[in-house]
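The pair is quoted verbatim underneath.

:::
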Amino acid sequence: MFASLQARLLALVLLLVVATIAIGALMVGLFHQSATARVGQANAELERACDAISEAYRFYSTGWHGAEASEDSSFRDGLTTVVQFALRQRVGVEGGVWQRNRGSLAYAYPTYEGSGPKTDVPQAELPRIEDINRIAASEGRPSSSRYSAPSQTLLVTACPLAGPIPDLTAWTMTRVMTFAGRAYRQLMTGLGVLLATVLAAAVLLTRLTLSWSRHINGIRASLSAHDLAELPTLPLTGERELDQIVSALNDAGARLAQARERAQDLSVKVATAERLAAIGRVSAGVAHEIRNPIAAMRLKAENALVKGRERHHEALTVILDQIGRLDRLLQRLLNVTEPEQAKLQGVNLDALLQSCVDAHREVAETRGVSLSCRSTVASAQLDPHLTRLALDNLLTNAIQAAPTDSLVELRADVEADQLVLSVRDAGTGPPADIRQRLFEPFVTGRPDGTGLGLSIVREVAEAHRGSARYRMSDSGTVFEMILPWQPS
């Protein structure tokens, strides 16, 4: 009857629909029974009980005259008898007589099922009893209130008493249990129907699971016995949906064999292309890092030739400094497979920053950019060579990005026990699409860039157990290295 998984699932859905309809019908019936009919009947019974107290009181008060009668103890005892007589056959109903500004004059619960007679007004419901009697006395007509709780509904009714004693009202109260009687039996019936429905669905689902498990285990055993590079041809199972998967696997195995042959031909070409690409990236990085020192040396040498012998010493000093920078770069390239290790020593930050600015000043002047440096801390424990390498890269980028007639500032500050080395320029910053990857190798926003400068900055910061970051400020772009710092 159920030849496919779709049909079996449809049967399960139908069973669940039947169960849902049954539960809904039972819940609706329970709601109307308990919340409407039972509460309505109980409320009507309270009104009749209040009328009974009123009739009994009218007969009892015939011989009494004056408001002082309520002070008479025999009168009040008689009121208790009146309430007991009126409620003697009303199961679950309690009540009494109330007078404004004096409270309860009489109370009775003749059908109380406890160990003895109940003679005191329930303290828990006393505020509600006071409210309903006050309303009935002030309005001069019967009044009712309902208070719902998870397991029961409390009903309170009050009605004014006509007679010689002013401001008297009679009140009655009862509780309607939510889960009891016929409503409870309906609930149990609904649960039985639900249980039978769920059991039937479970049996059908179990049969479906066992059948599919048997077929899937057979498929897994066939696949385990063969190399995945050569998928076997799997037999059909007789399950319509499962056979579609088996057919897809068989087709995938045939296409995989064809793809494997093509992949073998392409693997040699890919390996060759990757080696060439790696060589190209390394060459581009070396060219990028070497170009800046060479440009600085060229500019110094040209200025020395133009301005005479008095500039030779300054030019040679800068050229030697740049040669040292090239030597450090080449040494770093030779040790590229090893993590960078910072050799910490005490460094005068004013001198370090000033030497960095001096090395780039002439290049900056050719682009119409001014350089300045400022340090709010005298010294720190750093690797001077690595730090100089990182700051040179940041200054080079800032000079290229800064607009004409603007200022590039190199600063050293201490913030929250951390040394912050920052380079600030008035440029618009890198393109938005690469800002999240700025410090990754080969990521650049310039057509002539290689994307190695900022990756070197990050590596230097991490070698000092710090970090590098980029942010925009009101005045432009800021690149920072945040390094550990302790006061000397």
